[in-house]
Amino acid sequence: MFQETYQIEFPDVDFMGNVKADVLFSKMSIVATKDAYQEHLYTDEMRGHYGWIVAKQSLIFQKPIRLDDTLTIRTDSHHSHPVIFPRSYQLIVGEEVVARGYSIWTLIDLKNRRIIRPKSLGLIVPEKDKMEEEPTTLFESKDVTFDRCIPVVYSDLDTNGHMNNTRYIAHAFDLLDMDYIKEHLCTKIEINYKKEVRYGSHLNLYHVMHDDCFHVEGYVDDEIRFIIEMTMKKI
Question: Among 105, 110, 113, 189, which one is most buried in terms of CB atoms within 10 A?
């Protein structure tokens, strides 16, 4: 287990003072990486050659996280299968758990993009308890309509030269009407990552709203790259 504490500041929040979801997912990724270092599941020698890649994840909110909150993110890995590695998160303000996250990770060879087993690199995966909940597997919808095309530029990129996956969440929120955002809170986010999005690509975004479930799909050409579902609650 590893935890880190952050002060929520102005760049972290939206115009209503609520922390932006992509900021939370970014901080969760940082904490997960530090825990992997601590458990000797990631090393400096692996950098640039092998990496832990998140396949799907969810974040469930009990209440909003606000400007000036002191947020602690706690993470732990759980009982794994040969190439499937669950990880959970608790997001804590004061002594209250205000959100819980669940994710599935896998280890890949960054050169050929193939999944590998940790033991092939001499990594020893510790025995852990089973994760209490897993992220949902999402499916493409026949009801989506095209919204916009986004060029993948420098500011989108991570260290692998691909669009940082937290950008998918930011772009999904950008599809919502501002008046709708003013009247709703996001209570749950589910995201499935299908394939990386490279620099110079054009990401086509499609969406549909079913009741208060906002479903977003991202494509490059005709190939699905991610699916997001956000559960929205009227304030």
Answer: 189
CA proximity to 59, closest of 75, 38, 70, 81: 75
* Pair 97, 89: CB distance under 8 Å: no
- Residues 143-188 have pLDDT tens digits of 999 999 999 999 999 988 899 999 999 999 999 999 999 999 999 9
In angstroms, rounded to a whole number, what is the distance separating the alpha carbons of residues 100 and 114? 30
C-alpha distances (whole Å) from 178 to each of 25, 43, 66, 184, 186 are 22, 43, 19, 10, 14
Is the entire prediction scored with pTM above 0.90?
A: yes
**Within 10 Å of residue 202's Cβ, how many Cβ atoms?**
12
**Amino acid sitting at position 187:** T
- Rounded Cα gap, residues 52 and 32, in angstroms: 10
3-state class (DSSP) for residue 142: coil
User: Which residues on neighbouring strands pair with residue 30, listed in sequence order?
Assistant: none
Rounded-to-integer distance, Cα 24 and Cα 65, Å: 10
Helix 21-38 crosses helix 165-174 at what angle (to 10 degrees)?
A: 170
